[in-house]
Amino acid sequence: MSTYYTVFTTPLGEMTLQADADGLLGAWFETQTTQPKELGQYTESDSILNNAIKQLQEYFCGERTEFNLPLSAQGTQFQQQVWHALTTIPYGETWSYQELANAIGNPKAVRAVGLANGKNPISVIVPCHRVIGKNGKLTGYAGGVERKAQLLKLEQKE
Q1: What residues make up the catalytic site (predicted)?
Q2: How many CB atoms lie within 10 A of CB 116?
Q3: What does the pLDDT average to over 56-76?
Q4: Active-site residue among 12, 86, 124, 128?
């Protein structure tokens, strides 16, 4: 299946978005290492990508708290389960890795949940930035801990 990508500028830096005919495959800040080597064909006219840009712009302006996009991220069944659970963390709230493991019904899988969270290819839209350490500290974020702090601060403006 063909993949398409585009790049756009956010208040937190450039993001690359990738999609196929089924949905959004990825959204990465320029510093993220989880971006695939092959992105497909560059485009500025894909409806999924354009809708994602519109919704992300609304999010960064404080006008959107939920995303409504078809998602098509590729991962293992366990990763998919974790990524789906991430989408249930309410805007402006944070969960610990333990809470995320509990949410998928696997409370002993805290480390595995952390690894799956770190491999989430759809930054911001699948809000892995809302997961923090049990002690309340900001832990790793593929887009950078500083960017994670800025995203959480943005969501506290209500």
Answers
A1: 128 (nucleophile)
A2: 24
A3: 96
A4: 128
